[in-house]
Amino acid sequence: MANNNGNNNLHGYVALGWESVRSVFDQNLVEGLDIGASLCVYHQGQCVVDLYGGWKDIQRNKEPYTSDTLQLVFSVSKGVMAAAIALCVEKGWLDYDKPVAQYWPEFAANGKQVRHIRRVVLLDDNIFLLKNITVSDVLSHRAGLPYVDEKLTLDDVCNWSRITSLLAAQKPHWEPGTTHGYHPVTSGFLGGELVRRVDPHHRSFGQFVRDEIDSEFYVGISNDEIEARVAPLFRQVHTQLLKNRTKLVFFNQ
Questions:
Q1: I need a surface site. Which of 118, 153, 205, 230 has the fewest CB within 10 A?
Q2: Given CA atoms 191, 192, 195, 198 in this order, what sign does their dihedral have?
Q3: pTM, whole model, 2 decimals?
Q4: Does residue 133 have a pLDDT over 70?
């Protein structure tokens, strides 16, 4: 069933029985909870929802949000990174149980690879017995590298070689493999550099993803034409009355 709502620029398709999803999607646009958005749902191998609508501009009247619009997905990209690692494992280039330093020699710095016996290192007045950081540790956020000690600039963060070099030199913040600590930003650099190292063509991580997984997955923006398709971010504040309390809801498009 095709749907078209001129007021909210809502377009797309929902299968019979899934109309409520369209209603909620539309209501988010009406209430301003989304400025522009897209949603695709597969159920038992069939596409049952494929909707897009709203606007790319905060005035909601100039640039429609279309099926061709690209959206920043933040940590959803960790799933793409895990898929790229899995593809490398399938090809025999990586092994989940092998040390990261086997594929990335510089990573062995500061006790991140133990060759013969477990070594002892002093970290912030705590004595840790270090073990090899494995590919699995990186994927499960157990590597002890959620951040680097170096103060970073925006230019640093946008420089792949700079960040991966700092991570290779970084001392773990806890004994690797013993506990979990979310790596919100560094996991992409760690996993992506592993992919780049073992790829026979040594492609950038973004190029590897586009070549091997999906040409419409962009890790980084490759040119002005692609950038023009990206929905910009806006910060808005909505005051909602919830259980007699005023709740501030912050969100990004």
A1: 153
A2: negative
A3: 0.79
A4: yes
